[in-house]
Amino acid sequence: MSETTDSKTWSTLQRVILPSADQMDTVSLYVDAGTASGIRLRENDELARTPKLPEQKLQMFSSGSREAHFEDLLTRQSMRVRSGEQMSFGTYFNAFPASYWKRWTSVRDVRLVVRTSGTGTVTVYKSNARGSVQRVDGKHVDGAATSVFDLTLKPFGDGGWYWFDLAASSGELLLENGEWQAESSRDSKGQVTLQITTMNKPDFCLNNARILAGNQDVLENVKEILIVDQGTQKVEAEDGFAAVKESLGGKLRVINQANLGGSGGFARGMYESVENGSDYVLLLDDDIVVEPESIVRLLTFADHCKKPTIVGGHMFDLYNRSVLHTFGEVVDPFRIVPALPHADMEVRHDFSIANLRQTAWLHRRVDVDYNGWWMCLIPTEVIREIGLSLPLFIKWDDAEYGLRAREAGFATVSLPGAAVWHVSWIDKDDLVGWQAYFHERNRLITTLIHSPYPKGGRVLRESVQSDVKHLVSMQYFTEHGRIEALKDLFKGPEDLHRVLGTKLPEINALKASYPDAQLKDDVDDFPAPKLGRGPMGGTVVGMPSKKELIPWGIKTVARQLIKAPGPESAERPQGYLAHRDNRWFRVAHYDSVVVSNAEGTGASWYQRDPQKLKSMLTEATRLHVRLFREWDRLAEQYRNAVAEVSSMESWKKTFDAASEDSK
């Protein structure tokens, strides 16, 4: 949308949006009730970052806040402010992330346009990277009014936002709409292919398709909506699919292919977006709920970037919708693990407890290495230069791609105000079970390709430590997968495409041999634990200190190797452990224990086996020694192969085979 004023053409950068009346659990992400003077940013944000606040401090911290009334949310762009009340739009979805626009785009001045009816005031605020608030401007409004504020991005070097507050006087004040604008210099906007990869989640896919169909205004520059369906429960077979497809006006297309994992599905989206002439591909996970306005915001931001830039959205918890998973992620180069960009950042920040105006660290701009592919916009120019995803099936494909793009000179931005709701990591445990193979192999591949340190820094050391932890925890199926990952690493990068569609069935076929891999829905399906309080007399076992860790590990492994489990441990478990208590330093003291999974859907029976421990530890040690010796050769081999294995040509062969297999 654009408009001409003062002989200049202004285009919309960001619209003010509101939740629907049935989404009141997300209202704190859109509006913040209360006076601006009653709740101020604290440069020392200790209160906001302390999980357990004393009651009196929490009351002080929340003073002045009130709940918004759902009946005051009139449309997606308009709302009512009641007489004598104040409403702030200094929130996640409605504040303007000025520092991101200054750092990454050519925009240097913005215009805020607020259309109201009724009597009251419109007040504009800004913040800086330290979390200090300044009043910028304000206007008294009466009747139908359009308030225009011309604002500069000059002072937003390291962080800071703009936002506005509305205050109603003796009568109610209506916000008709509001938007942030910039002087337009582009003749046309980029076209995007919106792509969802799915595996047996047709209900999620259809729900998001309905959301998009109900927000047609965000689809103006969407060239195609592409669902890559790799499951057996087909989206096209869902009730209501035909009606949703028709409502999307021919933009929806479904590709059915064999299960090539997330990397295979997302690579297909990348491939198709290049083939159909799109300027961007927007990758979306299947088990999400999308905020549709995010699509426009990502595309608009990318269009204004000074050079091609990957632009991603944030992830909120699907089952606790005011909780943000993280504000941005980097890769620790010495360990090759996801890390936080700075120490002040809080993981799982709850905006219903401390909104933007109350949380100083949210005002610091966060520069990232990659963005998760739950929502990530990639220019096709980047794809044509650096290739598609590596064929990793799942895990590390998004991080590796971000690192590869960075090395080629393409930045990634995690843009505030663009987001999806996704199942939280706390409800998953993907370091155990069948996914352990992919975690181990793909982390090592990423390290071989991108680590700037000799022998991959600390990665090999931590890999050995993980082997010991899994083995003393009786997670033998998990360790089997990790050993297979090490073996397959030596087969080289040319093997990645070949096993892309076959490795998961191979791993799952091993489950029958391992009790710890066999999940039962009800703990009563297992023999009842024998009388007693488990090992150590039921004493709570704490994690060894760093100083004690190596001696503890040697002692624990020796004990498990030498001391055979009692014969009764194969007949009855010693106890039951909730997933929260399933920690390696605690499980290691059991001979036999039933453990629940992270999702709460079942439990498995862990049984100690000294022979498995001995053989697996010997094999894992041998493979790590070999990997250490051959590291430099393998690193060169994988680095040299990246262009080939991620190329359009290599992926086309894999897609063609997968299409034939899925018929």
* Major sheet size, sense and barrel closure: 10 strands, mixed
Helical content (DSSP H or I, runs of 4+) = 25-40%
| Proportion in β-strands | 15-25%
| Class per helix and strand makeup | alpha+beta
Task: Tell me, rounded to a whole number, the average pLDDT.
Answer: 91
The whole-angstrom Rg is 27 Å
Distance between the termini: 44 Å
Shape: globular
Give the tally of β-strands.
Answer: 24
**Helix tally?**
18
Give the uncertain stretches in residue-range form: 36-65
Topology record:
Blueprint: E1 2-5, E2 8-15, E3 32-33, H1 46-49, H2 55-61, E4 79-81, E5 86-88, H3 98-104, E6 109-127, E7 133-141, E8 145-152, E9 162-183, E10 192-198, H4 202-213, E11 222-229, H5 241-247, E12 252-256, H6 261-275, E13 280-284, E14 288-290, H7 293-304, E15 310-317, E16 320-324, E17 330-332, E18 337-339, E19 349-350, E20 375-379, H8 380-386, H9 397-407, E21 412-422, H10 435-450, H11 459-472, H12 476-489, H13 496-499, H14 503-508, H15 546-562, E22 576-577, H16 584-587, E23 592-596, E24 603-607, H17 610-645, H18 648-662
Parallel strand pairs: 10-11, 10-13, 11-12, 15-21, 22-23
Antiparallel strand pairs: 1-2, 2-9, 3-5, 4-9, 5-9, 6-7, 6-8, 6-9, 13-20, 14-21, 15-16, 15-20, 16-19, 17-18, 23-24
Helix pairs in contact: 4-5, 6-18, 10-12, 10-17, 11-17, 12-17, 15-17
Descriptive overview:
The chain has 18 helices and 24 strands. With 663 residues, it is α+β, with helices and mostly antiparallel strands. Strands 10, 11, 12, 13, 14, 15, 16, 19, 20 and 21 form a ten-stranded mixed sheet that branches. Helix 5 links the parallel strand 11 and strand 12. The two termini are 44 Å apart.
